[in-house]
Design a protein that fits this description.
The chain is α+β, with helices and mostly antiparallel strands and 203 residues long. The chain has 2 domains: 153 residues, 60s Ribosomal Protein L30, Chain: A, CATH 3.30.1330; 40 residues, no CATH class. The strands form 2 sheets. Strands 2-1-3-4-5 form a 5-stranded mixed beta sheet, with helices on one face. The longest helix is centred in the C-terminal third of the chain and has 18 residues. It is globular. It starts with a helix and ends in a 24-residue tail after the last strand. It binds zinc ion (ZN). Zinc ion (ZN) binds next to loops. Zinc ion binds next to loops.
């Protein structure tokens, strides 16, 4: 278990990496710490999955070295749950940590309650002192609970092996290389329109 001083050190690193302070980052530090401790020693490489992109993915990247770039971190952002898994890539054994909403008493921890139910005062979203005050309050309320806020689950990751390295193919339309999923994948996803995300423009 991380000491208060170690938590504070990680918090400073993560706030810097994330470029702003957010209570979810602080909560995430204890989630990663808890998962790592429960997972114990791994046979292969430790990998991570986050079920939301916000906050948790940055916490995992700074604390574990599992990053988007080295592909040890998978972000399953479409699930959108505030949860993460650390797992052994060798055997798929993993620990999932999520938030037990039933532990958040709306009278004793009103700001954290609103945070997890996304019902904070709209002023908070504008940033400034309101946001800062709300964030501080959430952390204070969270510190009273600590690990008690979390649910720990042992899980087996279904596709836990090293992700395949796809072969490169030249797209006949844009003439750039792209990663080909299978034989039928003839054109890159931008040119086929599946992932068109920009228009040409002159500015
Ligand atoms: Zn193309």
């Amino acid at each position: 278990m991380l000491s208060k001083q170690e938590i504070e050190q990680f918090a400073q690193q993560i706030f810097k990496f994330h470029t702003k302070q957010a209570p979810g980052l602080y909560i995430g530090i204890l989630m990663v710490d808890y998962a790592r401790e429960a997972l114990g020693t791994v046979k292969g490489k430790m990998n991570a999955i986050t079920e939301t992109q916000a906050c948790l993915s940055d916490v995992v990247q700074v604390m574990t070295g599992c990053t988007m770039g080295n592909r040890y971190l998978r972000v399953m952002k479409d699930i959108g749950r505030f949860a993460l898994v650390l797992f052994d890539r060798e055997d798929g054994r993993g620990i999932r940590v999520s938030v037990d909403l039933s532990k958040i008493n709306p009278t004793e921890a009103p700001e954290m309650y609103k945070f997890f139910h996304r019902t904070r005062d709209p002023k908070v979203n504008l940033g400034g002192p309101e946001r800062e005050a709300s964030g501080k309050k959430i952390i204070q309320e969270f510190e009273k609970l600590g690990r008690e806020l979390f649910i720990l689950q042992k899980v087996l990751i279904l596709e836990h092996g090293k992700p395949p390295m796809l072969p490169a193919k030249i797209c006949p339309t844009c003439r750039e290389t792209f990663l080909q999923r299978d034989e039928t994948h003839a054109e890159c996803d931008f040119c086929s329109g599946t992932h068109k995300y920009y228009d040409q423009c002159n500015f």
